[in-house]
Every structure is written in C-alpha cells, then in structure tokens.
Amino acid sequence: MIRNSSMWRLLLLIIAIAGIAAFAFAAQVEKDTYMAGFHQANGVSCVDCHEKNFVMDDSETVVNKKCVECHGSMSDMAKVTAKDELNPHKSHLGEINCSTCHKGHEQSKAYCNNCHTFKMDIKFDSDKKAEFADSADVVVVGAGGAGYVAAISAADAGAKVILLDRMPITGGNSSLAAGGINAAETSVQKKQGIKDDKEAMVEETIKGGRYLNDVQLVKTMVYNSAAAIDWLISIGADMSDIVRSGGVDYDRTHRPVGGGAVGTHLISVYKANAIKKGIDVRVNSDVVKIIKNDKGAVVGVQVKGKHSGLYTIKAKAVVVAAGGFAASDELVAKYKPQFKNTPSSNQPGATGGGIKILEDAGAEMIDMGFIQIHPTMGGDTKVLISETVRGSGAILVNQEGKRFVNELTTRDKATAAILKQTGAKAYLIFGEEVRKANKQVNGYIHLNLVESASNLKDLAKKIDVPADVMADTVAKYNSYYTKKADPEFSRQDMPRPIKEAQYYAIMVKPGRHHTMGGARINTNSQVINLTADVIPGLFAAGEVTGGVQGGNRLGGNAITDTVVFGRIAGANAASYAASVK
Ligand code: SIN
To answer: Is 285 helix (H, G, I), strand (E, B) or coil?
Structure first.
C-alpha cells in the first residue's frame, strides 16, 4: 500500500514536471514569434489579458482596456515612439484599439498597410516568424475522406504525419456521403456474380463529365478502383452491398450492408485507423499558407489554431485534401453566379480554404465554373436524399402525379428536368421494398422528410397530387418493371416495383452539391503550377482538385476519387519526404 502510494506520488511528480516543461516550451515558442508568448515569458499570464474566464470581449469600449492599463493611451505611446521615423501612435486616424495592429496569437500587422506600404518595424510582425514550432514528414490539410486516406497511406509508408482540419470535427463532406463508392471489376462484384467492365466505367465517367475530364486522371481512378475496395475492406470497412447510381449501365456503387450510408461508416473506419497508426489529428486548425523555400519546394505550412494561435509546421511534403467550395456563397457567386442562391448540401467548412492556399502556392486552377447541382435535396432542407434511393427503385413524379424523366440519368439532366416542373420540385415515390433495401431511408423518416401512407391514394392526398394520376403512373411503372422495359423514359434499371405498403413520398428540390474544379494534378497526385511544372513536395487529392470529374460528376465517383487519389497522394508524399534531406 505504502509502496503503491509513493509510486503514485512519483508518477504525479513526473506528470507535473512534464506539464511545466511543455508549458515552458510552448511559451518559448510563442515568445520568439507572437506577442502572447512574449508576455507570458515576461510574467504576464493569460488571465491578466483575458478577463471573464478567457472569453475576450469584442465590445469596442472594452477590447484593449488591459493594454492601456499597462502601456498607457495612444498619445502616451506616441511619446514613447516619438523618435521613430514613422510614429503611427501619433498619426493614427482617431482613437483605435491596440489590437487593430498588435495581435496576441498571430502575426502583428500595421492596419494602415492594408492600403499603404509604410516601411514600419512592428514587433511580432511575422515575416520574421518562420521559426517552425513543430515538424512532420507529411502534413495533410483537411481531414475528410481524401485527407484521412492520404494520412493513413503516408503513415503506412513510414512517414510521421500530422493531419489538420479547420473544423471542430473531422470527416468533411465525406461524413455526409450517403450513396456509395463506384468501382469496377471488384472482388465483391465477382463474389456476387455482378458483371462489370473497367473500360465502361472510364467511358461512362467521361460521358457523364460531358467529355471535359482529364482522361489520364479518369483512367487512374478507374484502374485503381477495385484495389481501393480491397484496401477499404482490409482496414475494416464493409463494402458488401452493391447498387446502381445514375448515368451508368452497371451495378458498381459499393456500400455497407443493407444500404447504410457510406460516409459515416468510412469516416469511423478511418478515424480508428488513424488512432491505431499514431497519426496526430488536429481539429480547429486552419492552414492559412503553404510555405515554400527559395527553390519553390514546399517546406511547411502556417496554421491558425483556434486555441493555439498562429504557428508553423515544418514538413517535407504537404498533401492538400481540403475539399471543395459548394458551401461558399462568395466563391459560387464568383465562379457560377447563377447558382449563388441555390442551397448547398455541403458541410459548413466546404468553403474553398484548400483552393485558396493552393492558388497562393502557385497551383493552376482548372474547371472552376463546373458546379454540380444534385437533383434531390430533401424538401427545403440541406439534407441530401441519396441517388441510391432512386438506384434501388424509387421514381420521381411531379406535382401533377406524372413521371417526367429517366430517374437514373445523370445529375445535370435530372436537375434540369426537375427545375422545369411546377414549383421547381418533385416527389420521390417508393414502397416498402425500397425502404427495406436502404437503411438510410429510416434516417430521412427520423428527420421528418418523409410522408407515408398504407395506400397510394392517401399518400397522394398528403402531398397534394391527383390520386388517380399517381395511381396510374405507379401502375404503369410496375408494368415496365415486369417487362424490364420503360418505353416512356428508357430507364434501364428497375430493380424493384412499387407494390408493397407502406408507401412513401419525399419532396425534393435541387441543391449545390459538388465543385468539379480545383488544382490541376497529374496521375501521381502532384500539384501542377501555371508553367505546367510540378510544385516540389506538394500533392492534392479529392474535391480540391480539378480534372477527374470533368463538367459533371457521376454519383458514387466522389468517394472513389478520395480513396484512389488519397492513397496515391499519401504514398507519394511519404516517398518524396523520405528523399528530402
Ligand atoms: C448521393 O448518394 O446521391 C450522393 C453521393 C454522391 O454525390 O456521389
């Protein structure tokens, strides 16, 4: 017992010493770079500036009270700096707050230099601050699907990896991906007797992309897709259910058993693997700059941590996998003004942060005006109703109760058709057969997006559609299902009829879903600059890149993109890092 308690005391002492050392180290790092660290190192503690339990008050009358208490007013400071060549404390326009120029946790910057270029030596201005606070072989920017895959692949190749995400949770848009992952000639398809053809997947992806894709990138994605499925299974994913997505003639969209949403499943598998492999995953960490040396090679990133402030990480290679910009009204207005007011299915962080840092680093941006509108967002919400609901048998009817399009055409065509209908909306109609094949429908029911009834007449009443017309539409569709031919809209795949109660309806409207444009990459996932050269040490994968999906992406090809190019980017970044001295 005595022995145990003295061991405990020893352990506590070690923890305390380690804590003090870590704090002292952090303070030292900031002392060299930022004002907060400097203050701390000189005996001014956090609470001396941050009143109210660390919550900073943005009220204009309160914000710099503490600075003034210690340093005096602007006119007091003007006397102190009177001998300087420029005396901004004197020449400022009116009474301004100290933190307008002097920042605690990020680089200080003279506010007037936003418009002017006064040569002013402002302390803690950070072009001098490039001391690296941290280091890794590979830094991955963005912890969505592509980022996690790149990080895991780089770690598997022996690299020390730091994975950063600007949001408070990881997962990105991938965590919302409802459908599945397309792959051709996979072990799972073979086991289930499903025929497929890689060349058909290449052709369908390019046709779906309106012949605007980078063909070599498409081939790389497709030829590596079967291996991607095996890799996912090898790290613990369930890819056992296969369905069809729009614009293709083959069942190749892989997803978890029972038609569960692919995204949440994959992200939880990735997270478990990242933990197992010791990857340092940081949230609230916005990468604001890719740092290059004078030869143009990437040497690190500058990160703005919500709690840790601005700091730099030295890295031999950087993979940017920070997603697209469908959630940014500003960028959508810039590249496709007509979609400015369309709602977005994307997570709130999909605002093009990765696009910006790649552009700043000299990457060539391509296809930026290609923004995909997904035909079926649920009602007036941001919830996407997966294409796989149509893929497993639902039909689309308009307010008049009639079908108006091949439900499994490409997204651009389905969207255009819905926008022509009364109220620019439509209803997904299906029976119990489809619900049973799609676990995710239970989620839509939970979110109150679904009307249901025990017969079609009552369902029609609930959605204000003429009951006799809808009954006729469904009867016709069921006869096409039996004959395996749709003379009205040439729908190829009709896997289930609409015969079994309950019957369901979901009101749908189109919404911004995917941005096809981004940084140009080559088949090694290396980022290409404006003179068509590789930027040494810089890799990218997923929606932040352009070229793979062309002018329109097929459903299920986004996750393929993230897994295939995430793996390529991660492995190549690790091997590049190993070659750097
Ligand atoms: C969907 O299931 O419709 C969305 C998935 C995707 O965009 O591929």
So the answer is: strand
> Which one of 3.30.450.20, 3.40.980.10, 3.30.470.10, 1.10.1130.10 gives the CATH number of domain 46-114?
1.10.1130.10
Could you give the angle at the alpha carbon of 286 between the alpha carbons of 285 and 288, nearest 5°?
140
The 3 state secondary structure assigned to 439-484 is: HHHHHHHHCCCEEEECCHHHHHHHCCCCHHHHHHHHHHHHHHHHHC
State which ligand 1 atom lies nearest to the alpha carbon of 179: 2
Nearest CA to ligand 1 atom 1: 386
Q: What share of the chain is helix, strand, coil (3-state, %, to 5)?
A: 40, 20, 40
Helix (H, G, I), strand (E, B) or coil at 314: strand
For the CA of 178, the closest atom of ligand 1 is: 2
Residue owning the nearest CA to atom 5 of ligand 1: 179
CATH topology of domain 133-178+263-370+516-579: FAD/NAD(P)-binding domain (3.50.50)
Helix (H, G, I), strand (E, B) or coil at 536: strand
For residue 30, the model assigns a pLDDT of 46
The 10s digit of each residue's pLDDT in 74-93 is 889 989 888 887 888 888 77
* Active site members: 411
The pocket around ligand 1, CB under 6 angstroms, is made up of 177-179, 384, 386-388, 555-556, 558
Q: 46-114 and 374-512: same fold? A: no
**Which pTM does this prediction carry?**
0.81
Tell how far the Cα of 441 is from the centroid of ligand 1, in angstroms.
14
